Amino acid sequence: MRMIDLIAKKRDGKTLTAEEFDFIAQGAAKGTVPDYQLSAFLMACFLRPLSDKETALFTKAMAHSGGRLDFSDVKLPKTDKHSTGGVGDGISLALAPLVACAGVAVPMMSGRGLGHTGGTLDKLESMKNFEVRVPVKSIHRQMQKLGVCMFGQTQDLAPADKKLYSLRDASSTVESRPLIVASILSKKYAEGVDSLLMDVKYGSGAFMKKLEDSRKLARALVATAKLLGLKCRALITYMDQPLGRAIGNGNEMLQTVRILKGEKDLAPDFYELLLEQAANMLVISGKQKDIKKARKILEEKIANGEALAKLRELVKWQGGDTQAVDNPEKYFKPAKLTVDFKAPQAGYVAHIDALLTGQASVLLGAGRNRMEDAIDYGAGLWLHKKCGDAVKKGDVVATLYASDKKRLEDGLALFAKAVKFTKTKPKAYKIIKEVIK
């Protein structure tokens, strides 16, 4: 089998076989196929899109290009969630322990933030000594004992995807929907879960800006996951404005702990999406049959302290300081410099642009533009007002945190462009637009 023949075959619009996709994935993982041929293959896929069946075969081939996690001896249904990323979207931090305490095992593999979107691993590392680079044996043991583990992608999981992911940007093939689907699902399929919930966002702060594009991606993800034998559904969610009140790593962990302590009115939009995602995970895993019943069970788990207790156990297991859970207001200290953004007029907050807010948080030091950039865990924003809230002139809309005066000034200047005011109360927006089954 020769790579040049497979490139030509896909270039001419012909269908590749499972064996051919395996050859490509193994070549990418082991370095036996040069980057220029892999890039040519990606462009051929961009111009001649993979069918649903081909996408599933390619996904499976990438998942099998390295090791896979095996939780067959964990006698619970196993599920995970993937989000296409957003601003203030720290849902995973609360979701994993909440679902786990309801009797479903959650091996949650997450990533780091890049650009205006935050990363779950960075948020977890705002807790001193919390270990996200967990060896496979330790992940397995923790899943057996605790039923939940939050970790980064290991070197051996879907290595073909790592190579091809890095080439997609360089070869201008990032927008290919089948390649996006295969990249996302190859890592999740390698996790050894039975079911998967997708959170596909749309709006200014999302990867897909338009609703229809997000809908097409969600449908493709669900269809491909089912071809792989995974029970799957997708929520299409709103990311034109930031989710919750906290943006920034320590900030978002603080919000998570407070919500699991029962402060559901702290950030109603965050709480609503948390419950809906968790309820859907219980249903697709087979643990519960009815969404309403699942939601009620989850609300009880928060109210009786079980969800918070599971988070505390998770933090302890992975080397973090449990004071982060027991005394979050003291533990998660903001960066030393602060400034308030105040309403310049009376009226209502009409809109807070998610993209500009996310970019402002990067300027403050909460994110990175390059993977090697350092993170300031205390930097970020806290939104005291959200869309639809009434304001008087001079009311504090948001507090910004940074460790550097220039960063604070730059972040404030950009955030000021993100907020719009109106004299009349704007219409409420729905967090969850659609459910794709």
Summarize the model shown.
This protein has helices spanning 3-11, 18-30, 35-47, 52-63, 91-100, 120-124, 136-145, 159-170, 177-189, 211-227, 249-260, 268-284, 291-303, 306-317, 323-326, 328-331, 354-364, 405-418; strands spanning 79-83, 106-110, 148-152, 195-202, 231-238, 246-247, 337-342, 347-352, 380-383, 390-391, 396-402, 419-422, 432-436.
Task: Provide structural commentary.
By secondary structure, the protein is an alpha/beta fold. The chain folds into three domains: 61 residues, Transferase, Pyrimidine Nucleoside Phosphorylase, Chain A, domain 3 (Up-down Bundle); 233 residues, Pyrimidine Nucleoside Phosphorylase, Chain A, domain 2 (3-Layer(aba) Sandwich); 91 residues, Aldehyde Oxidoreductase, domain 3, CATH 3.90.1170. 46% of the residues lie in helices and 15% in strands. The protein has 18 helices and 13 strands. Helix 10 links the parallel strand 4 and strand 5. Helix 12 crosses helix 13. The mean pLDDT is 95.
CATH fold type of the largest domain: Pyrimidine Nucleoside Phosphorylase, Chain A, domain 2
Radius of gyration: 22 Å
Mean pLDDT reading: 95
Name given to the CATH homologous superfamily of the largest domain: Nucleoside phosphorylase/phosphoribosyltransferase catalytic domain
CATH class of the largest domain: Alpha Beta
Strand order of the largest sheet: 1-4-5-13
Tally of helical segments: 18
SS-based class: alpha/beta
Share of β-strand residues:
15-25%
Q: Work out the count of structural domains.
A: 3
CATH architecture of the largest domain, by name, is 3-Layer(aba) Sandwich
General shape: globular
The total count of strands amounts to 13
Q: Spans with pLDDT under 50 lasting ≥5 residues?
A: none
Amino- and carboxy-terminal Cα gap: 38 Å
| Helix share bin | 40-55%
Largest sheet: 4 strands, mixed
Q: Oligomeric status of the shown chains?
A: single chain
